[in-house]
Amino acid sequence: MDDLKNIVLLLSWVDYLGIALFFSCWMGYRFVLERGEIGRKGLIGITHEYRLQWAMESAAREIPVACAGLTSNLMASVSFYASTTIYIIAGLFALVGSVERLLSFSEDMPFAQAVSSGLIELKLILLIFIFVNAYFKFTWSLRQFNFLCILIGGSPYHGNMPSEEYRVKTAKRMARVNSCAGNEFNRGIRSYYYGIAASAWFLHPVAFIVATIWVTYILYVRDFHSPVLEILRDTYPPELRNYAQGSDEKGVNNQEGSVQQSSR
Fold first, then answer.
1. Can you list the residues of the chain whose pLDDT is less than 50?
2. 82: Cβ contacts below 8 Å, ≥ 6 apart
3. 173: number of Cβ within 10 Å
4. pTM here?
C-alpha cells in the first residue's frame, strides 16, 4: 500500500494529464466514432453494407464454398493476431522481472525522464492491460466468426427459402454477426495502435500525450477520410472515373473486334 502511495506521489500533473487523455481517446473513440450517424459514415458503416450484400448473395450459391473460404481467411487473420498478442503479453511480464535493466536503458535514451523502478512497473502494467484487452477482443472476434460459419452452414439455398422476407432476415442476421466479429477485430487492432502510444510514456509524459493525439488522428483519418473509404463509397475522383470508363470502353471494343474477326 505504501509502494502504491509512493508511485502516486511520483506522478506529475503532466503524467495525470497524459493518462486522462489516453483513456479518453482510447475509450471515447469507440463510443463516439463507432456509433450513430458518425459511425455509419465511416469504414464501419460502409463495410456493414457490403457484408449485407455478401449475405444476400450467399443464399444464391447452391454450395457456399466461396463463403467458407472467405470466412476461413478472416478467422486465420484474427487467430494470427491472438497468438501474437500472447507472445507480447509474455514478453511484458518478463520485463516486469527485469525493471532495473529497463530503467538503466531508458535513462540512456535522449529526452528520457528520470523515473523510479515503481513508475516503470506502472507503465508496464498499463501496456499489459492494453494487450490483455486486445487478446480478449481477438478471441471474442474469433468466436463470433465461428457463429458466422454456423449461420452460413444453416442458411438454406435460395430456391428452398420459405419466402423473400425469410431470406432478408437471414441475410441481415448473418451480416450483423459478421459486423460484430469484424468490429471486435478492429478494436483489438486499435489496442495495438494505442499500445504504441503508451510506449512513448517511457520517454516522457509529453511524448505520451503527443503520441496519443497522433495515433487518434491516424485512426480517424483512416476510418473517415482514407482513399479506400472513397472507393467503397464509389466516389472516385473524376479523372479516375473517366479512366475506369475508358478502360471499360476499350475492353468492350476489343471484345467486339475479336468477335468480328472470329465471324470472318
1. 1-2, 238, 240-241, 243-245, 247-256, 258-259, 261-264
2. 135, 138, 139, 142
3. 14
4. 0.80
Q: Which distant-in-sequence residues (6+ apart) come within 8 Å of 4 by Cβ?
A: none
* Residue ranges covered by each domain of the chain: 2-233, 237-264
Query: What is the torsional sign of CA 89, 5, 112, 218?
Result: positive
Q: In the prediction, which pLDDT does 110 show?
A: 61
Q: How far apart are CA 158 and CA 177, in angstroms?
A: 20
Q: How many helices (H) and strands (E) does the chain have?
A: 11, 0
Residue corresponding to grid cell 536503458: 105
d(CA 12, CA 20): 13
User: Among 154, 156, 116, which residue's Cα sits nearest to residue 6?
Assistant: 116
- Grid cell at residue 2: 505504501
Cβ-proximal residues to 138 (8 Å cutoff; 6+ apart), any chain: 78, 79, 81, 82, 85, 184, 185, 188
Residue in 147, 215, 142, 154 with CA at minimum distance from that of residue 182: 142
Distance CA 161, CA 159 (A): 6
- Least Cα distance to 200 among 188, 189, 219, 215 occurs for 215
CB 44 within 8 A of CB 235: no
Q: At which residue does the C-alpha cell 506529475 appear?
A: 12
**What is each CA distance from 148 to 38, 63, 68, 153, 176, in whole angstroms?**
26, 16, 10, 9, 9
Chain-centroid distance, C-alpha 256: 45
In whole angstroms, give the CA distance from residue 66 to residue 60.
12
